[in-house]
Amino acid sequence: MEDANIRNIGIIAHIDAGKTTTTERILYYTGQNHKIGEVDNGEATMDWMEEEQNRGITITSAATTVFWNKTQINIIDTPGHVDFTAEVERALRVLDGAVGIFCAVSGVQPQTETVWKQADNYNIPRIAYINKMDRLGANFYSVLTDIKEKLSENPVPLFIPIGSESSFNGIIDLVKMKAIFFDQNSLGKNYTYENIPKDMIETANTWHEKLIDVVSSYSDEITELYFSGSDIPENLIYKTIHKYTLSRDLLPVFCGSSLKNTGVQCLLDGITALLPSPDEVKPTVGHNIKKNQDEIIKNNPNGQSLALIFKLQYNSNLGFMAFTRVYSGTIKAKTGILNITEKKKERINKILRMQANHAEEVDELKSGDIGVIIGFKESKTGDTIGSENFQVLLEKVVFPSPVISVAIEPETASDRDKLSKALLIMKLEDPTFTYKEDEETGQTLISGMGELHLDIIVTRLKKEHKVLCKIGNPQVSYRESIKSEVTETSEFSKLLGGKENNAKLTLKIYPIDSSSNVYKNSLEKHQSKEIPENILSAIETAVNNTFKSGINLGYECCNICVELVDITYNELTSTEYAFSACAVQCFNSACLKANPVLMEPVMDVSITVPDSYVGDCISGLTSRGGLVSDIQNKAGISIINAQAPLSKLFGYTTSLRSATQGRGSFSMQFKYYSEKN
Q1: How many beta carbons lie within 10 A of that of residue 499, not counting itself?
Q2: Cβ distance 636 to 611 under 8 Å?
Q3: Most buried one in 94, 285, 318, 360, CB count within 10 A?
Q4: Residues 562, 416 share a domain
Q5: Is 178 in contact with 195 (CB distance < 8 Å)?
Q6: CA dist 347 to 183, 294, 333, 649, Å?
């Protein structure tokens, strides 16, 4: 199939905005499913993982392929919960376009804003779908205002609803100026175009004029036709909207109710007509290792093979499934390929095209396509694969560090081996999940992005991997840092095997504001003679490793900058070993003099509650060390935005539900590390 007929799209939104329900309708209307699976009764196809079905949320980015209007649509269904932001991030890395789904009642919610900003980083063209028009409190026009104000977008409705809440029964196509009604006996599969109801004609005309006014401002041809009183062809309107959707000047808006089987086919038409094909997006850039320069990667199925592994998923029958986006060339089954990142050869045993929880075997993946490769042994998320004679590294996906840990112990000796194997599999699947064994206690600490994240990891260990284990209480992943600047000089001298090992160096350390570990080399300002590269590398490696072992308490360091101020080198007695040991000694000594402090993770918190509970919620939050930054009000609902230390938020979900009679909800995500009080 030609690239022009491929769409790689993601479905992004806040939790419970209807992403999975909408995807289920897409699968049904495109013929992938013979019946509609519902999230509410645990039958959703895209939520194939048992924990997803139990909780009614999407955890992993399930990938599926459908066909509509002679176009292949590769869909990544992404999580809406902030604990799984990394899943969203790695999905966005390989997408060409996205559908933002908004609840017609809640509008733009906190996680929508988070994901929207993530998509902005990749400059992904989007269309919007305002869902749940049948819900009590639904207001299409209020959501338009929300999108404009909170997301700084230019929303352009192509459809408006006929009625709302219980009176919602169809939509109006503002381009065709026709009403569309969906037959519920066929679960919305059959629909008819009819004349616009009389009570909606004035509203439809107003919004049609607004649509023409917007598109004419981008097209002289439409302007001329408009002023001459001539009909404006539908394809010209869509051509103009398509062009300026790609440039991010316009955000086309659709509406409907996925649960009530209304509006999804129009959304599918919009995906194929308005979102870009792989040929239409800005070419990706990679780094050519041999030439040591950046290189533009053109979307060409006949070019050199180059692809990115954006997700690993373990299958007990197939082994690791490598979800892969091809950026250049054609990748064929039963052939060898080079893992350019790891410089290791891999073999492609099979290539699969996924239909949610089942797969179709294919012979090849061409440039612009997304599929699953079976057979890799060494590859992991973020690795670049391709031809040996075209070694170009694609940009890696960067994942945040975990902020919460729990201790886990196997119940029996046989479970210990099963636990080790399961943890390794889950770490490879999820780069935001880590684990380590405490040598003193023998306990294993598992770490993740939040309580829900770890709760699901533990449940999967027990149910999917059949590991019997005991779980401790949640622990905060603290960090260590410094408050003062210190310059320290150290010397190292040791006789090993009759050979002298000498080193002398001076390090300057000082605190920085960013939330990352930094090693800064300023040798060019101080060296008087050439220092071998292997010596500099040994010093750098030693400092970076010492960051991980902490200062006083063994927690990883953060917000510290190190400069190599001076170095004394003797080619007869100076060795890598000596400088490694000297660098560790110097760094540790300097940190102890630099007023070391314990740092704790501070979280961005967003609480959604009915107006009547705002006072109680603010009181409860401040008692946990929270600072309220702002409160937004909308239709009897208040959204409280605040920052609070993670250590004080354990169990907050339970107390919030108790204080609001089950009507309050909250989400949080890591913001920065701050000195612990």
Answers
A1: 10
A2: yes
A3: 94
A4: no
A5: yes
A6: 49, 27, 9, 47
Instruction: Give the CATH number for residue 308.
Output: 2.40.30.10
- Contact 236/220 with Cβ under 8 angstroms? no
The residue among 592, 624, 647 that closes a domain is 592
Helix (H, G, I), strand (E, B) or coil at 69: coil
Statement to judge: residues 511 and 653 lie in one domain: no
- In sequence order, the 6+-apart residues with CB closer than 8 A to the CB of 597 are 480, 481, 482, 483, 675, 676
**How far from each other are the two terminal CA atoms of the chain, in whole angstroms?**
60
What does the DSSP 8-state code read for residue 432? T
- Whether 391 and 340 have beta carbons less than 8 Å apart is answered as yes
Q: In whole angstroms, what is the distance from residue 64 CA to residue 75 CA? A: 5
Reduced to 3 DSSP states, what percent helix, strand and coil does the chain have, rounded to the nearest 5? 30, 35, 35
Torsion angle in degrees (nearest 10) through CA of 438, 443, 444, 446: -100
Of 132, 157, 165, the closest CA to residue 262 belongs to: 132
Both tokens of residue 539? Answer: 């010093």
Amino acid making up residue 259: L
Residues 204 and 307 grouped into a single domain? no
Structural domain range at position 488: 484-592
What are the tokens at 90? 């790695």
55 and 120, same domain (yes or no) = yes
Looking at the chain, the whole-number percentage of residues with pLDDT higher than 70 is 89
Condensed to tens digits (0 to 9), the pLDDT of residues 281-330 reads 989 999 988 888 889 999 999 999 999 998 888 887 888 889 999 999 99
Residue 605 host element (H or E):
strand 596-610
Tokens coding 515 = 């939330």
Compute the Cα dihedral for 421, 425, 430, 432 and give only its sign: positive
pTM: 0.71
- Beta 518-520 vs 560-568: how paired, if at all? parallel
Whole-angstrom distance, CA of residue 124 vs CA of residue 96: 6
Which CATH number fits the domain that encloses residue 164?
Answer: 3.40.50.300
Pairing of strands 384-386, 335-339: antiparallel
CA distances from 593 to 485, 519, 562 (A): 9, 19, 14
Check whether residue 379 and residue 492 sit in a common domain.
no
Q: Are residues 109 and 130 in the same domain?
A: yes
pLDDT in tens, 608-656: 888 888 998 898 889 999 999 989 887 677 889 999 998 888 878 778 8
State which of 548, 571, 592 marks the end of a domain: 592
Rounded CA separation 299/281 (Å): 9
Cβ neighbours of residue 662 closer than 8 Å, sequence gap 6 or more = none
Whether residue 201 is found in the same domain as residue 292 = no
Using pLDDT thresholds of 50, 70 and 90, give the confidence band for residue 101: very high
Give the count of domains, the chain: 5
**Cα distances (angstroms) measured from residue 543 to each of 153, 222, 536, 580:** 45, 63, 11, 8
Give me the helices (H) in 57-109, please. Answer: 85-92
Same domain, 453 and 502: no
Neighbour tally for 298: CB within 10 Å: 12
